[in-house]
Amino acid sequence: MEHERTLPIAAAIERTYADEHPNLFAVIMAGGSGTRLWPLSRRHLPKQFLDFFGDGTMICKTVERLKGLVRDENIVIVTNSSGRKLVRKQLPNIPKKNIIVEPTSRNTAPCIALATAFIKKRNSNAVMCVLPSDHVIQNVARFQETLRAAVEVAERTAALVTIGMKPTRPETGYGYIQAEDTNPEITTSIKVRFGVNAHKVKTFAEKPDIETAQRFLESGDFLWNSGVFIWHVNAISREFERSMPQLYLDMQTIQNAIGTRAERKTIENVYSWTHPISIDYGVMEKADCVYVLEGDFDWSDAGSWDEIMKFRDHNLEREENRNLLLQDSANTLVFKPKHKTVAIIGIEDAIVVETSDALLICKRGRSQDVKNIVDVLKRKEMEQYI
Description:
Layout: H1 2-14, H2 17-20, E1 24-29, H3 58-64, E2 75-79, H4 81-90, E3 99-101, H5 108-122, E4 127-132, E5 136-137, H6 140-157, E6 160-165, E7 176-180, H7 184-194, E8 198-205, H8 210-219, E9 222-232, H9 233-243, H10 245-257, H11 263-273, H12 279-282, E10 290-295, E11 299-300, H13 305-311, E12 324-327, E13 330-335, E14 342-345, E15 348-354, E16 359-363, H14 370-379
Parallel strand pairs: 1-2, 1-4, 2-3, 6-10, 12-14, 13-15
Antiparallel strand pairs: 4-9, 5-11, 6-9, 7-8, 7-9, 8-10, 15-16
């Protein structure tokens, strides 16, 4: 009898945030092509399904970061037709019904609207965390604390919430968010409870040129746009209806068809006329009330080889580097097949990426231009290399 009385206490101790927040869902966007990480990232195996650091693929690590925060059955992944098999292989714990396939890529606004339709069909009181599948985040505990703070802001304000990162350099590859302090009641309580700085959003800015990026950095009130969003399904539905009414109506049509024989055909029809547009441009820039929380964890969108290089372990004892020979070379990143022997002599600040059918040699700091090579391959109809 004594043992029986202790069971509820033990069970309570083991309860997680996910158990206490059954209405919390996560949407992982996994339909990107990762062209700036060519030639390793390809159409049949884009970057989110690759392991760059020897500790798991990017999408698997994205799901791992949600452990204890969101139930597996509440994690929804939006991908393309080829990505479906990869998701099922790499993430067997994600229910099949939670893998949503876009007929074609239409940027982030339609992707998020589609996921919203599915989640709202299941739970009309859900709070959504929208996450890219290809970010690098070092301090997982702090990341989760920031997400919990964002969920509270979303629930208390019915606002759209995003996470921004404090700039460390005048970066031209990221969008920016200008913050302002206009609601001390919310921002103070979030700071006290979670240790996270929260602000109202004044404006969003597209990727700037280097001079503008330098001004943003010096002003002190701009944050990098991380592409992570948190909101109640009714809040984002409201903003879709106000700012993108046609997409809102289309997603209502899809929501009505979910679970019926017409589901797949309805999604294909809607995507046949839906225009590509980002969630930032389509909704966030026009929304009435947006909050941004400062993320103080190590973060990168891992969008280029230069970004990968910042987090890459250069330990030559790694298995794939056993036959990599560097002589009088520094600050050089090398990816190569395990069976290949590669020797590099007298080269600094370089990125070398070799696959079975392609070789990239790029000066460090120029890897944003790799996507131009992919564009050239498309124009030359060299599809087998994309």
